[in-house]
Structure prediction request, 173 residues.
Amino acid sequence: MNQMTKALASIQLLLLDVDGVLTTGQVVYTDSGEEIKAFSVKDGLGLRLVMDCGLQVGIVTGRGSGALLNRCRNLGIDLVFDQVRDKAAKLAEISNRTGIAAPHMAFVGDDLPDIPLMQKVGLGIAVADAVPEVIAAADMVTNAKGGCGAVREICEALLKARECWEPILEQFS
Prediction:
């Protein structure tokens, strides 16, 4: 088992930024001022599969939106911290709420506000189109861009490291 597989296998909580990770980072407004977000259904299935395998999933994002809350409700994610200016400052609260220590957490980010939290958890992950500073701070970088399968890629890596992937594939055969 290589070092990255060991690190992935130790993760109990997957934390995600939203804009640029679960979405492409584009913010779309209707004429009435309503914000619209597009989420990948493949990322969504990946998140459900990791939760079914025993991992917890949470959101830590600087922005808030009804679209995000609806998506989280749909996926069964109830650990949601939105409108957060200092993401790393939420770490103690997240640990207290989940009972999971920082070394057993992963955080996926794409932009500068994500770096401090990435550096405090056990596994910092950058999406492929993250800014260079985030990529430099990351322990792992996805091949896929944010909103375009990056989260699914991470979910599959976590499932394979926990030896949950093959039994999942058998369910769909």
Q: What stands out?
A: The chain has one domain: 3-171. Residues 88 and 117 are 4 Å apart (CA to CA).
